[in-house]
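Structure request: Tissue inhibitor of metalloproteinase, Candidatus Dojkabacteria bacterium.
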Amino acid sequence: MKKIYFLATFIIISIISTSTVAACSCIQPGTPTEEANKGQIIFSGTVESITEVDDLNLQVNVKPIMSWTSDLLSLSTPIATTNNSAACGYNFEEGKDYLIYAYEHEGNLSTNICTRTQLLDTAALDIPELNQLNYKRYDYTVQNNDNTEQTTDRDSNALLIVLIALFSLGLLSYILVKRTK
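Returned structure:
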């Protein structure tokens, strides 16, 4: 009988201590033209460095190559993102070229996995459309010059708790039935 109480206590503690899980939930980004019309700053660039700002945030310094919507970029433009995809962070790698769709957030340029940001090598469909925009383009090689919604996945946690509780009750019932026989 002590085993049953121990098992029931363990199961109850496990259910109570289940923590909330945060996950990234994205709204499908629009076309390059739609994103430009929303005011996104769209540019290509090479990641020069990645610096951890705090436990969750990164600063990615990007050397611009070409901008389709803004001439406000500097020789090394800082872009903010989070350090993991569960928080919608984009996984940049130093030395690689990207097509970046950035937005202004708290006075900084930011991007995430919910934008059209991608490796420049895979942006073949975006570049021709960007080149057709009625914005002035800025070539930084000549001049040398971010729809989320972070949600808490409570429904998944609730389902997990219910499944654990049902399994526990089933196991407890099975043990009690076996003991009475």
